[in-house]
Design goal:
This protein is an alpha+beta fold. It has helices at residues 21-71, 104-107, 151-154, 273-276, and strands at residues 80-81, 85-86, 89-92, 95-97, 147-149, 181-185, 188-189, 199-200, 209-212, 215-218, 224-225, 232-236, 241-244, 258-259.
Length: 280
């Protein structure tokens, strides 16, 4: 028996049918629900990855700090010096020359977005540039660092603050080196009204109390930033690092998570602050 060509009609194979509108909406709803469930986990994983990179950065700064001391008779490196030189580089009219910074011989890393000087949780563009002269446009050439150095205690004469009676520290002679901060995440908020943060990066890890006119007074703008799930990544004089909380201290800038580790200067910032008054 010879069959002719098969004709698809009423009794033939039905044509493939696509999604109906209802089915499409159901699929989209399921995808949205899955994303809604997964997004917090993905966001948390991203934050954890940023914290790990940040901690690695700050460990490298610690190594530079220690190597500087070995090369300069045991003294802690300056936070700043004359002619616009800072620990991260030198401010010029054409931009930041990182090769003139105190850590450069030991890191040889460019000052740039995503560099060892920049915390990935505080990217370029999320703050005003401390190194940029007034009136200049924001450009990567003005990037400095989103980490701060505890020059207030480690090198008072070259800390960026003036007329401090503290002594320039030799690293080996520091009491409780496992508790004294060397570097940590920093940021400063210039808005004191609490309405809208005016954020700028800051080279200095400023303590909760500052010394002025022979006495200690509350610092309204400390610079420790707790941007990693309300923790700051910190490295200590002995070289070990760990994330730190405020230890119960209130934020001075709650929106930007800026404050201090603890409510006083000791032991983390200026452990011998009570003796400073006796030196005047």
């Amino acid at each position: 028996m010879i069959f002719g060509p098969h004709k698809c009609g009423r009794h033939g194979r039905k044509a493939d049918k696509g999604f109906t509108l209802v089915e499409l909406l159901v699929v989209m709803s399921i995808i949205s629900l899955v994303l809604f469930v997964l997004l917090p986990s993905l966001r948390k994983s991203r934050q954890q990855a940023q914290a790990v990179v940040c901690m690695n950065n700050i460990k490298q700064l610690s190594l530079a700090f220690i190597l500087y001391g070995e090369d300069y008779n045991g003294y802690a490196m300056p936070a700043t010096a004359s002619s616009g030189i800072y620990w991260w580089g030198r401010k010029l009219t054409t931009g930041i020359d990182h090769k003139q910074g105190f850590v450069w011989p030991y890191l040889k890393s460019d000052l740039a977005a995503d560099s060892v000087y920049e915390c990935p949780a505080q990217p370029y563009g999320s703050y005003q540039l401390q190194g940029k002269p007034p009136g200049k446009p924001d450009e990567p050439k003005w990037i400095t660092s989103t980490y701060g150095y505890n020059g207030y205690y480690l090198c008072p004469p070259q800390s960026g603050w003036y007329n401090l009676p503290g002594c320039w520290q030799k690293i080996a002679g520091i009491n409780m080196p496992t508790q004294v901060l060397a570097f940590a995440d920093t940021l400063i908020d210039y808005d004191l009204t609490g309405k809208k943060p005016i954020l700028k990066n800051n080279f200095s890890l400023d303590p909760p109390y500052i010394y002025k006119s022979g006495r200690w007074g509350k610092n309204v703008s400390p610079t420790t930033c707790f941007r990693h799930s309300e923790r700051t990544n910190a490295v200590f004089v002995d070289g070990h690092s760990e994330p730190m909380t405020t230890k119960g201290a209130a934020y001075t800038s709650p929106q930007a998570k800026i404050g201090s580790v603890g409510t006083g200067n000791a032991p983390y910032y200026v452990p011998d602050y009570l003796q400073w008054q006796e030196k005047r």
